[in-house]
Amino acid sequence: MKDLLKDLNEAQQTAVQETEGPSMIIAGPGSGKTRVLVHKIAWLISNGVDSFRILALTFTNKAANEMKERIKNLIGAEALNLWMGTFHSVFARILRIEAEKIGYTRNFTIYDTVDSKRIISQILKENIIDAQIYPLNYVLWRISSAKMNLINPENYNFNSQIQAEDLRAKKPLLGQIYQTYWNRCRRANAMDFDDILYNMNLLLREFPEAKEKYQKKFQYILIDEFQDTCFSQYVIIKTLSQHYRNVCVVGDDAQGIYGFRGAKIENILNFNKDYPDCRVMKLEQNYRSSKNIVNAANSVISNNHTQLSKTIWTENDAGEKIKIIRTISDHEEAMQVAQDIFQTKMNFQADNSDFAIFYRTNAQSRALEEALRRTNIPYRVYGSLSFYKRKEIKDLMAYFRLTVNNNDEDALLRIINIPARGIGDVSLNKIVVFAHENGLSLWDVVSQIKKYRIEISAGIADKVDVFGTLIKSFNAQLETKNAYDLALHISKASGYINMLKSVNEPETQTRLENIDELFNGLKVFCENAKENDTEKILTLSDFLLEVSLLTDLDDDKDNNNKVSLMTAHSAKGLEFPYVYITGLEENLFPSSMAITTRAEIEEERRLFYVALTRGMKRITLTHAESRFRWGKREFTQPSRFLEEIPEKYMEKPRKKEFVDWSEEKNNYENVEVCSSELRFKKQNFEQKSFSSKTTIELKKINQNFKKVKKANYDNPTLAAPVNQDEIVAGVNVEHEKYGKGKVLQVDGAGNDKKAVVFFPVTGKKQLLLKFAKLKIIN
DNA sequence: CTCCTCCCTTTTTTT
DNA sequence: AAGGGAGGAG
Asked: Are strands A83-86 and A576-581 parallel, antiparallel or unpaired?
């Protein structure tokens, strides 16, 4: 047991041992916060506390899994009985047990944001509400905020302040939309993310015996990332901890970055009020980052007005100064980052996993991915277009959802005609209207379509009947087949897989691969259960509950030794020796959506602070002078945050470089050179001279590059490297993007002249010669 | 009813 | 850049 304290400093030891009564740990970045939590839980268990009486709430699933693993390594498998997970996953599990009490069945569906949007969009359409005045995101945000403040539609509509706000915003229908959405979710036996928290509160408030049960169950409660909890989460914690009062919250006000979704940093202050006897401990020594990084981050955050006082310091070396890279375009930015990683790997024998690239928006990952691919650097993108948001996955999941929960209207509407069953919009609409008018659920009508007199042709009624029978047959196997087997059966029997295979689209292959991945996930899910020697089979229902709260596939199998790409938000809690923060431009980081109020800017600054403090050895900040956004090139200004880092922590003083263009030796100005060749030469040039070239020189090259590009743009035909007539069937060519290939066929003439080219990697492509800069090779 | 095409919006961040 | 919606042809 002593061992558990061995590697901890004094402040950390105290934090671990102070287990009784309310306590709050304010922990700066890199101060060993996770370590304290892990050791604290291990400490409790090894002091005889039953692990299933400990509730530990984290912010992400990833964090939960990692901590569980570390606790397991400290004290063994006993740790697995711990109640640990995100707020949403833990309380969804509890609600599943208690579902009947609050008017749900245990097979309730969890709607994600995409589902919610679909439903709200339908509501708007049905009620002929202008989506211009009621943008989906705004409506959703408004409803979400209400729920997070425990305001149900009734309270919403009778709250004069809210009504006044909506009136002022000229959106008086919001209350009605909210009510309709609310009813629809409940009718569908479904909860969205906010409902999980709302319903947990409802359960604790309306059912004293349930309240008592869970208050007495959880003897110790620990909450990570407390600064990012919202009001409804706060109330749950407060209620659950009332009996034992052994509640420990861990957080850092300087790292609160979820205000946009209702998180209240004030919860930290409120906690002091609710528990006046609470002990406050501070962890201020940073073990992660170099002095330069710590100091730079401190300087940045000192620009914020609202913060608790604390001093983050470190005994680490001064380390490298912070680097800045400025490029002409986002594309160039990505290339330079990739090359910098390449160089660093060479010079310092670093692993890929030592590197992370952060960005403000997911869309920025594309250019970076491409650059890394070209440089042959393995990488993994976290988040992005979440696996579970892909169309084919959502479709299949909709089948699963409908099988498990027949009342899931959204799922039904999504797939009743996918694959096409001849049940079109017109008929479907009649069914929906009939159901709504008669107070029936959609499934009631669909499953007994012949019973009702609806104005649809007998043929279509037959088709609906067949669909209903199909779903019923799936549902009948719910308890007897395990998740994997049933899912496989559904995907085949529904005709979905065949439909995908029969369409000859370029995406078909990827879609099928994604489905394969889904089934791998299912397999792993079922096999894990076997390992944990649970006798009962894991049903599709179990799988859905588990999976609907995951944002991405957690494949830990081969993500070792890859460069990590992620948003600054998802970087929270992680650390990497070499960190690149990209896109440091006004309107991007800080985001254009968050520069109107002081509070918004401060949140963006905290986000930048979080990003900076992930770095251990080196931080590289990059920004581009122009960037593709919404399919257009936009010119940018450097981020204000760059100015907030004192020059003494930066590699080079920032001063305007004077470029003497008269001296310019023009190596690549030959417009005849095709752009891929130019890029190749340029890259070669940069690679050879990377470390020694000054920014001025790089800038010159960039400038030339820009000129050629502009020339190409102004007069595309000029850029053609060869006479188009030379491109005939049988000739070997090289394409900028697809590489080497063989021309199979040429059609058309002049501007419409196109070639069918076979590329070994990507397959057959049809290319307009006007645009495709094909080069003839031998 | 389905399929095709064109146009439109969308993107801030996540459970 | 890409998916969804609207609208028209078959």
From this structure: unpaired
Q: Is the CB of A594 under 7 A from strand B?
A: yes
More confident site: A529 or A294: A294
Nucleotide nearest to A258 (CA to C1'): B13
Residue A558 has pLDDT above 80, yes or no: no
Report in angstroms the alpha-carbon separations of A529 from A153, A159, A202, A302, A708. Answer: 40, 48, 31, 49, 60
In tens, the pLDDT along A105-162 reads 999 999 888 888 888 888 888 787 888 788 888 898 899 999 999 999 999 999 999 9
Question: Phi and psi of A23, rounded to 5°?
Answer: -150, 155
The single-letter code of the amino acid at A449 is I
User: Which has more confidence, A342 or A64?
Assistant: A342
Q: Please give the full DSSP string across A520-570, using - where no structure is assigned.
A: HHHHHHHHHHHHTT--SPPPHHHHHHHHTT-SS----SS-TT-EEEEETGG
CA of residue A508 to C1' of nucleotide B3, angstroms: 18
Taking the C-alpha atoms of residue A405 and residue A107, their distance in angstroms, rounded to an integer, is 6
pLDDT of residue A743: 75
Residue whose CA lies closest to nucleotide B3 C1' = A420
Q: Provide the percentage of residues in chain A whose pLDDT is more than 70.
A: 82
Cα separation, A343 vs A674, whole angstroms: 27
Better-predicted residue by pLDDT, A615 or A393? A615
Asked if strand B contacts A202 at the CB level, meaning under 7 A, the answer is no
**Cβ of A111 less than 7 A from strand B:** no
A618 has which bridge partners? A578
This prediction's pTM: 0.80
Predicted confidence at residue A760, as pLDDT, reads 54
Residue closest to B12 C1′ by Cα: A361
Nucleotide nearest to A628 (CA to C1'): C1
Query: pLDDT tens digits for A20-33?
Result: 999 999 999 999 99
Tell me the CA–C1' distance in angstroms for A364 and C1: 13
Distance from C-alpha of A401 to C-alpha of A487, rounded to nearest angstrom: 11
Task: Say yes or no: Cβ of A633 under 7 A from any atom of strand C.
Answer: no
- Residues of A annotated as catalytic are 33-34, 224-225, 255, 614
| CA dist., res. A684 & res. A371, Å (int) | 14
Instruction: Report pLDDT digits (tens) over A661-713.
Output: 222 223 322 222 223 333 333 333 332 222 222 233 333 333 333 333 333 33
Q: How confident is the model at residue A418 (pLDDT cuts 50, 70, 90)?
A: confident
Report the relative pairing of strands A190-192 and A109-111 from DSSP bridges.
parallel
- DSSP state letter for A103: T
Look over chain A and give the mean of its residue pLDDT values, rounded to a whole number. Answer: 82
User: Which of chain A's residues 622-661 bind strand B, using a 7 Å CB cutoff?
Assistant: 629-631
Contacts of A417 (CB under 8 A, 6+ apart): A423, A424, A428
Question: Would the Cβ of A143 be found within 7 angstroms of any atom in strand B?
Answer: no
For residue A172, say if its preceding peptide bond is cis, omega within 30 degrees of 0: no
Beta strands in A183-317 (DSSP E): 190-192, 220-223, 247-251, 279-283
* CB distance A680 to A350 below 8 Å: no
Q: C-alpha distances in angstroms, A325 versus A332, A335, A351, A355, A638?
A: 10, 11, 22, 16, 11
Q: How far is the CA of A431 from the C1' of C5 (A)?
A: 21
Could you check: is the Cβ of residue A113 within 7 Å of any atom of nucleic acid strand B? yes
Vertex A127, ends A411 and A464: CA angle to 5°? Answer: 35
HEC secondary structure over A478-498: CCCCCHHHHHHHHHHHCCHHH
Amino acid making up residue A56: A
Instruction: Give the span between the Cα atoms of A411 and A388, in whole angstroms.
Output: 14
Q: How far is it, in rounded angstroms, from Cα A133 to Cα A744? A: 52
**pLDDT for the residue numbered A530:** 63
